[in-house]
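Quick check before the chapter quiz. The format below is the same one you will see on the exam, so make sure you can read both the input and the output lines.
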Amino acid sequence: MIKDNTIHMVKAAFHAPFKTAMDACGISADYYFKKVNLPTVIEDPESLLPTKPFFQLINIVAIDENLPGFGSIVAQTTPWHKIASLAPLIEQSKNLKDLLDTFCEIASQQSSHGDFSLIEKGLHYRFSYEGSPLVKGDIQMELYRITSMILLSQLACGAEWRPEAIHLNQPESRVVDASLLLTKSKISFSQLDSSISIPAELLQLPVHLDILVKRQTSDDADADKNNDFPNSIRNIINTYTRTKNISIEETAYIAEMSVRTLQRRLSDHGLHFNELLNDAKFTHAKTKLKDTKVPVMEIAKSLGYSDAAHFTRAFHNWSGMSPTKYRSTSSDFS
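Here is the expected output.
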């Protein structure tokens, strides 16, 4: 596996499929989220999270819970066209080619790791993914990905359709037998990409989408454009700070570096951790205070403060007024 120092990011909306799948299997989602240092609660599906913990999570659950097909379970529990950050972007697709072309174009907005493509190969098209593994033995994430690609194609081809050929990047493994969607296809292992074969004649079939999900916020965080180091750290802090008081030690752990390295790299960009942390808390506090139904004490706790007094002092330092005053001032202009 090639060493990649990039902090790859993914839309927080992909947190929900993992939770839903674990809940459906009677597994403690909170336990496993904490085990890989992912938040247990997501408030904004359009925010960003580091990608690698999801790769670790899917493999750990499969092994610990003896669920060799867990990657496929996650995909089938919440197909891609039902994911909150992705669904609104593909809902206007008219046929399968339009759907897959659109998906390949916008996939980098959802995750900065890897690239999807749809390539014509004579009488067939190859719907493929290329990206280096983020963890060793990445078979579960590959099962998730291939299953999701098949399910996306079935929106036009029908629920009984299976690809004639499947290419997998991972070495041969009997784990794939646990996914019934893959058992009727000819599978080639240790390939350069992960892909499924689709007959060209099927690309003009109409797509049958049943999408009820709409964007929940106006925050258009783009996983690819926000993938440079300062923005990656900002996004980690912004997402985790919504529900806890994240420390520099936790941030460094999530970013897979030492505290000293994190401080040095931030300093190279003229940034300091505490400034980023306070900026995130102030932003979240202002948003929460605009909802007059939420008590100040509850807002304080959600941001990691032990009591309202500490939160009030911090907010006054940021804004020059108390949270109550800010709330009343904001309501005057609403």
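If your answer matched, good. Residues 139-157 form the longest helix (19 residues).
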